[in-house]
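tool=predict chain=A
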Amino acid sequence: MGEWTDSTALIVVDVQKGFDDEVYWGPRNNPDSEANIGRLIEAWRDQAWPVVFVQHASKNPSSPLAENSAGYQFKSVLTGEPDLHVKKSAHSAFYGEPDLHGWLQKHGVSGVAICGIQTNMCCETTARQASDLGYDMIFVEDAMHTFDIVTPTHKVYRAREIARYTAVTLAADFGRVVRTTDLLD
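tool=predict ok
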């Protein structure tokens, strides 16, 4: 077994500078998400629990998250070295390199706490897959954010609604949905 047997890893998904481009992404919810992510990272490190940073490398060269762009870099809230750094170009952190599932298994990690960007995309996809793989999944809803979605018919779905629907769906059958204070207090 690994050094963190039966522990919970903090999976910090895609907290990258490219998500600050409001012209590209549109309006977002939860302006406190980065501060909460920072609090979680600090708490995990204080306990010497595993911290994983996940970084999205878009295959679209004009994306703010393209590997050769300034937006590919992590935001300043991600400090220090993670225990594992996963690079991916798919939605789920479990499809990145190095292999997240293999690393968690090697170290005996039985749970994951997920935070990052975007709530309904890479965070949700990673959460669903973590649950399906048998991890005790914790979704930290106020340590993430997403953006409004405008459909081809110009209907607008607000980021706060999208985040709420994601949380309700995940809480119904995939794991626990909590707030940062639920974990830290």
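The chain has a mean pLDDT of 96. Strands lie at 8-13, 51-56, 84-88, 111-117, 136-145, 149-150, 156-157, 176-178.
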